Amino acid sequence: MKVTVEVSQKDLRDMMRFSGEKQRSAAISKFLTSSLMLSRRRELLDKFVSGEWGTAGPTGDEMKDEWVRP
Amino acid sequence: MILPDSVLWIDFSRIKTPVVVKQQIAPYLRAADTVLCDPVRFEVLRCERRTDRARTEAIFATVPLLPTPANFWQESIKLGQLCMDGGITVPPLDVMIATVAIHHKAEVVTFDTHFELIQKVMPKLQVRLLKRAV
Description:
The complex is a heterodimer of chains A (about 70) and B (about 130). Chain A has about 70 residues and is mainly alpha-helical.
């Protein structure tokens, strides 16, 4: 989907510099995607800390025997 | 770059892991420079129960995945043999995770002391060894 956004010259320059992208739209898109992924990740991780989400199965410590078995 | 070891992802997601341990792990999973690699992805997902897989996959989809080096298997063999020659026996998957971490200069964050042993024979491996909070 195409949208028109207002971005300052400085921000755009920095986005191209940090992303390594030559195209302005590719640089903005890359930044947006990585920022979105990070926000999504943090939101999902919070669900595990709060107890809303959780997986069954052994903990790392309980699996240690399996890992050291030759 | 921070490369959380499988044990961090596993402990973090488990229902029975104490909250204090989850809080200890959380900053390493929340960091902007946190990355994932295929051996960690494999180790976590291969033992995930059917009902839990979608959630773990959902989180993994938000973490940048380090490309597996083209010479991954050969480098893993070399590192494994280096461990063996140094009198160190470590699980094969730890050797594979270490291989990817060395290639990308990522720091492995773990509770697993095997990585410290690997570091003894391969000082290029960056390791941050944590002790579970009590």
